[in-house]
Write a structure and sequence with these properties.
The complex is a heterotrimer. Chain A is mainly alpha-helical. Chain A contains eleven helices and two strands; from the N terminus they run H-H-H-H-E-E-H-H-H-H-H-H-H. Chain A has a single domain, classed as Orthogonal Bundle (ABC transporter involved in vitamin B12 uptake, BtuC). Chain A has a two-stranded antiparallel ribbon with strand order 1-2. The longest helix of chain A has 29 residues. Chain A is globular, with a radius of gyration of 18 Å. Chain B is α/β, with parallel strands linked by helices. Chain B has two domains: 160 residues, Rossmann fold; 63 residues, no CATH class. Chain B contains nine helices and ten strands. In chain B, the strands form two sheets. In chain B, strands 6-7-8-3-9-10 form a six-stranded mixed sheet, with helices on both faces. The two termini of chain B are 31 Å apart. Chain C has two domains: 30 residues; 303 residues, no CATH class. Chain C has 16 helices and two strands. In chain C, strands 1-2 form a two-stranded antiparallel sheet. The radius of gyration of chain C is 21 Å and the shape is globular. Chain C starts with a helix and ends with a helix. In chain C, helix 3 packs across helix 12, helix 4 runs antiparallel to helix 5 and helix 9 packs across helix 11. The chains are: A mainly alpha, B alpha/beta, C mainly alpha. Chains in contact: A-C, B-C. At the A-C interface, helix 3, helix 4, helix 9 and helix 11 of A face helix 6, helix 12 and helix 14 of C.
Chain lengths: 283, 244, 337
């Protein structure tokens, strides 16, 4: 039973981790707290849904396509909205992402309606019985996908020139600029990448979660908390924070009750932040 | 007159990094004391310890007879210690006068009284024409004067000046020196960090030399500039100690 | 003598105040339509909440995204005391205020040590915690919330009137008080200190400001004001439930109303509330068949204001802006001729 909960917690945790890493990336590079991550995820869930119903594409297979679309979308959002907001007061930057989220959520509500949807044709169904653990394929696939995307992200940030230039910009924008890095592009890429990650999260989530316009909100809050648990703008920390959130979510849900799981999460967060203001792994 | 400020065995570690080690000196009431040393010697760290911006790892700060080692920055300000920063930290969206008023409100509860005092101080520091301009519109020199003005408005007994001369040209420097002399003439003790030896020599009565986190020596300006170890430390760091 | 001096210093504010209040008192006397009065009432209530947030967020610069907590306290205290004791809101409102201030003191002390994004996120987590507690707290109605309606009590006692006008004037009265409060704070030592903390906390501390103490005080005052708004709103709707504590709804709207109008100014939140609420309510009723369209419009409006009026709507009204705009127009005219 314990292992089952651990597994489920891990699955959920990787989704939170993806959202959290997106938030952390934008926070670390541009110092904006993006309130639209949840909505980006929601959009990609709908994209996956339509690719599935119209072209019979499995959500996992559509991930590369969805990520590409979301990346472009994120880049456009950055260029048109965010980059201009950056010139203004900090508070407005946060609010513009919130307003964007509001527009997207309600726009979806208006156009496609609020009914719950789910993907009809999943490629991987059923479960594998390992004796001590019942592994549902529907949960295994998103887990694998999330881990792969996370791994790719770390590789990208660590090994590639572009990734390194983004990290340099995050550390010290002026110095990076002096070194010849195009910091504007770095900002745009960071935003685009974080949107794309939200895209991957969304596709994965469609495997076992309902699709509806307001689905992003709780993930956003949990994403914020995960990032804080992990420490300032630290992507690795956000990843671990996300996993912790997933674990707490499932453990309290199974052993206490569903209603109190959010409470437990928030209380843990408040305690952590009171005693360790920079997060569990922050500098 | 006794020592207004006593620094006893001040030591500050940042993790494993030893920024200040066992520094001791005194500043007499009404005097001007200069703190000199090569870049990275730990002078600003020392200042931060004195003004309580960060805690001391060990040692004591005695101000006006009171042990303030464990006090918070706002408490030592109320006790009479004012401080400026190397890079001026003005309240950007407030006007010049409002900035100074913030300092004046330290010992006044009425905004009107603070405004009166702020106008006096602004006059004293030659900032009157900028009274209603936002701090962000001032240039570096004016911002430095604003820093000093705001600190002065709090009626300090001791003023800590952190590299006020940095980036100033000849005329600006002379004006700054005159201002410092004017402030000291009003009975305020001054502790100043300076790189520009010429300035320190012409203004200070006592000089404390900090090298690599330790106090190398202290004495009057002539003693310090003719000391071979001091010259060595400066030439080693690329500074010319013996300018006339 | 002292009064005369104060009058001179604040002449501009007093004139604006008199004019605005005169308009807001007289004009509604001629409004008969229920819907318009409804909108006006909501505008005053949201003004109060914006003003409350303005104190901690606008003047002291600590961006809280969790003020729905204090709204809820004010609302629930009012609702429960009415339901259990038939206590008049004239009294219960102050209980709510007191409770809010106590809670602000208790959570403010650890929370205000955090900066920036951390503080914002903590306030959101706090609101979410509270929401879950309220959702499961049978004593105060849990998910069903509280609704109350007492015909037998005298109307001025229970605030339940036949038509909307009396409630509007009560609400307006409180709004006027809050505006005066803001002005008093702005011109006081407390106000200067808050602004200094917002501008540069380290610098403020070296200038003798106990930042922790002042931030906490600002938090407590803002909690009190927002809870007044909450109490009024609950009495008006005669209903309250935990949905108001959703972290991304009321908390963010309180912030929006203030920021759109102009943070750190006396009239900003009022302007913001009147404009945003009016547009939202009319859009909602006009486009009732497209659920969600009013919020889309709201969001687009926010984006528009953030991009083109970064200092908020108040910058349109400021004399400097009008002078600058006319100067630019003159320049362009001269260039083309």
């Amino acid at each position: 039973m314990l292992i089952q909960v651990l597994f489920e917690g891990l699955v959920m945790g990787t989704i939170y981790a993806l959202i959290a890493m997106g938030i952390a990336l934008v926070w670390g590079v541009t110092n904006i707290l993006s309130f639209s991550q949840g909505e980006f995820m929601m959009l990609s869930m709908y994209l996956a849904f339509y690719f599935n119903t119209l072209f019979g594409l499995d959500p996992v297979a559509s991930i590369p396509l969805v990520m590409a679309i979301m990346f472009l979308f994120g880049a456009i959002v950055y260029k048109t909205l965010i980059s201009r907001a950056l010139k203004g007061p900090k508070l407005s930057q946060r609010l513009i992402t919130f307003a964007l989220g509001m527009v997207i959520t309600n726009g979806m509500l208006m156009t496609v309606g609020g009914q719950y949807r789910s993907i009809p044709n999943l490629m991987f169904q059923g479960s594998i019985d390992l004796g001590f653990l019942m592994v549902s394929r529907q949960k295994l696939v998103p887990l694998a996908v999330s881990l792969i995307v996370t791994g790719l992200l770390f590789l990208f940030m660590d090994k590639t020139k572009v990734g390194k230039s983004i990290r340099a910009t995050a550390q010290d924008k002026e110095a990076a600029g002096l070194m010849g890095i195009n910091t504007e592009n770095a900002y745009m890429l960071a935003f685009g990448i974080s949107t794309a990650i939200a895209g991957a999260a969304g596709c994965s989530l469609t495997y076992y979660y309902y699709i509806y316009p307001a689905v992003g909100a709780p993930f956003l809050i949990f994403g914020f908390i995960a990032v804080c648990l992990g420490g300032f703008g630290n992507i690795a920390g956000a990843f671990l924070g996300g996993l912790i959130m997933g674990m707490v979510d499932l453990f309290t849900g199974s052993y206490l009750s569903t209603t109190y799981k959010y409470l437990a999460v928030c209380v843990i967060f408040m305690l952590t932040v009171s005693f360790k203001p920079k997060g569990l792994f922050g500098r | 007159m006794g020592a207004l400020l006593e620094v006893r065995n001040a030591t500050k570690y940042f993790g494993g990094l030893k920024a200040n080690e066992d520094i001791s000196f005194e500043a007499e009431a009404g005097s001007i004391v200069g703190i000199v040393g090569p870049n990275g010697a730990g002078k600003t760290t020392l200042f931060n310890s004195i003004s309580r911006t960060h805690p001391l790892t060990s040692g004591q700060i005695i101000f006006n007879g009171e042990d303030v080692t464990k006090r918070k920055p706002f408490e030592v300000c109320k006790l009479g210690m004012g401080r400026t920063y190397q890079i001026p930290q003005a309240m950007e969206d407030m006007t010049t006068l409002e900035n100074i008023m913030v300092g004046a409100l330290c010992h006044r509860s009425s905004v009107k009284a603070a405004e009166e005092r702020a106008k006096e101080i602004s006059e004293f520091c030659d900032l009157s024409e900028f009274n209603n301009a936002t701090a962000s519109s001032l240039n570096v020199m004016q911002k430095k004067r604003l820093e000093i003005a705001r600190a002065l408005a709090g009626d300090p007994k001791l003023l800590l000046l952190d590299e006020t001369m940095a980036g100033l040209n000849g005329i600006e420097r002379t004006n700054a020196i005159n201002l410092i002399r004017k402030i000291n003439a009003n009975g305020i003790t001054i502790l100043m960090i300076e790189h520009v030896m010429k300035v320190v020599m012409s203004v200070s009565e006592k000089v404390v030399v900090i090298v690599s986190g330790r106090k190398l020596m202290e004495g009057n300006p002539n003693e310090v500039t003719s000391n071979p170890e001091v010259i060595n430390a400066y030439l080693g760091g690329g500074h010319n100690a013996g300018c006339q | 003598m002292k009064l005369r001096a104060s009058y001179n210093r604040h002449r501009e504010f007093l004139t604006t105040f008199m004019i605005v209040m005169a308009v807001l008192i007289i004009v509604p006397m001629f409004i008969m339509r229920e819907f318009a009065m409804n909108v006006l009432i909501l505008c005053t209530i949201w003004s109060i909440m914006g003003i409350g947030w303005n104190i901690i967020g606008g003047y002291a610069g600590q961006i809280s995204n969790g003020h729905a907590l204090f709204y809820a306290i004010g609302a629930y205290v009012g609702a429960m005391t009415m339901k259990w004791f038939q206590m008049t809101p004239w009294i219960s409102m102050w209980i709510g205020v007191l409770l809010s201030m106590v809670i602000a003191f208790v959570i403010g002390t650890p929370l205000l040590r955090l900066r920036d994004h951390y503080f914002a996120i903590s306030t959101m987590a706090l609101v979410e915690c509270t929401r879950i507690i309220f959702l499961n707290w049978k004593l105060i109605g849990a998910a069903t919330g509280v609704s109350f309606f007492y015909k037998k009590l005298p109307t001025w006692y229970s605030w339940q009137f036949a038509n909307k006008h009396p409630f509007y004037y009560i609400s307006l009265g409180f709004m006027a008080l809050c505006i005066i409060l803001t002005k008093a704070i702005e011109s006081s030592k407390f106000g200067y200190y808050c602004r200094a903390i917002k501008a540069n906390q380290e610098s403020a501390e070296s200038s003798g400001i106990d930042a922790a103490k002042y931030k906490r005080r600002a938090y407590m005052i803002s909690a009190a004001v927002v809870s007044v708004g909450g109490a009024l709103h609950a009495q008006y709707l005669q209903y309250i439930d935990p949905a108001v504590l959703l972290p991304l709804s009321n908390s963010m709207l309180i912030v929006l109303v203030c920021v759109m109008g102009g943070v750190g100014t006396v009239w900003g939140p009022v302007l913001g509330a009147f404009l945003m609420i009016t547009i939202n309510e009319y859009a909602r009723s006009f486009f009732v068949q497209f659920s969600g369209l009013n919020l889309v419009i709201y969001g687009i409006l926010v984006i528009f204001i953030v991009l083109f009026l970064p200092k908020g709507l108040i910058s349109l009204v400021k004399k400097d802006t009008l002078i600058n705009i006319s100067r630019k127009l003159m320049k362009k005219l001269r260039a083309t001729s």
